Amino acid sequence: MAGHSKWANIKHQKAIVDAKRGNVFTQLSRAIIVAARNGVPDAAGNFQLRTAIDKAKAAGIPNDNIERAIAKGAGTFGGDNSSLEEIRYEGYGPGGVAILIEALTDNRNRTAADLRVSFSKNGGNLGETGCVSWIFAQKWVCIVEGRVNEEQLLEASLEGDAESYEMIAEEMVEVFTELVNLEKLSHTLKTKGFNVTDIELRWIPGNQVEVTDPDQAKSLLKLIDTLEGLDDVQNVTANFEMAENLMAAMA
């Protein structure tokens, strides 16, 4: 099983627990600010913003906080959130695993320093821009939960112009598409009765590094968990492949 899919499943199972952490609230609020800033500050006309709001509500963020984040993104609230930058960092984990980090920060020097320390303490190193990004391609993913009829899923995926889908657990499917087809795909899946529980932009690796050593696996997963725990980090992607039983033991 591909590492990114199994890891996506583990991260999804951790979502309810992780949502209780304050940094997750910060990350989701920042995602709303950026979505509102990059498009119209109206969920009806901004699919990225609508998706960010849905994730925030699912995590239990109060409506007042969501409205405040939208206002900050639109520039009608005040404060210094207009200084938030979207920055991508790249590096290597144990065993040469490529790691891509997406961050939102108001202080790139602080963020880079935090990332450098996290890498060095967990057997990796922060690299230069472009050192690993060539390995990955961006795709939007609709996550479907519940038991599905694969014939019906295939039909709906074709109708929604999906590129592919992957069964990553007994009751979880990921359906991949380009940004231009995302809203159509999401609408089609929901109309056909599929339970779309999340939508996210993900970096998909073109090749994977197999990790078989338990100590290396432990260091790698600890590094990813540490990176994801940083306030400025929005998303972490890696190109590792690991046996399911080894990953489950480490997680």
TrEMBL record:
Gene3D superfamilies associated with the record: 1.10.10.200, 3.30.70.980
Q: What is this protein called?
A: Probable transcriptional regulatory protein Aazo_1140
**Where does this protein reside within or beyond the cell?**
Cytoplasm
Q: Boundaries of each TACO1/YebC-like N-terminal domain copy?
A: 5-75
UniProt keyword DNA-binding present: yes
Q: Where is the TACO1/YebC-like second and third domain?
A: 84-240
CC annotations in GO: cytosol
One GO molecular-function annotation for this sequence? DNA binding
Species this chain originates from: Nostoc azollae (strain 0708)
What are the BP-aspect GO terms? regulation of DNA-templated transcription
Q: Which residues form a coiled coil?
A: none
Q: NCBIfam families, alphabetically?
A: PRK00110.1, PRK12378.1, YebC/PmpR family DNA-binding transcriptional regulator
**Glycosyltransferase listed as a keyword:** no
One Pfam match: Transcrip_reg
Keywords per UniProt: Cytoplasm, DNA-binding, Transcription, Transcription regulation
Q: Which family does it belong to?
A: Belongs to the TACO1 family.
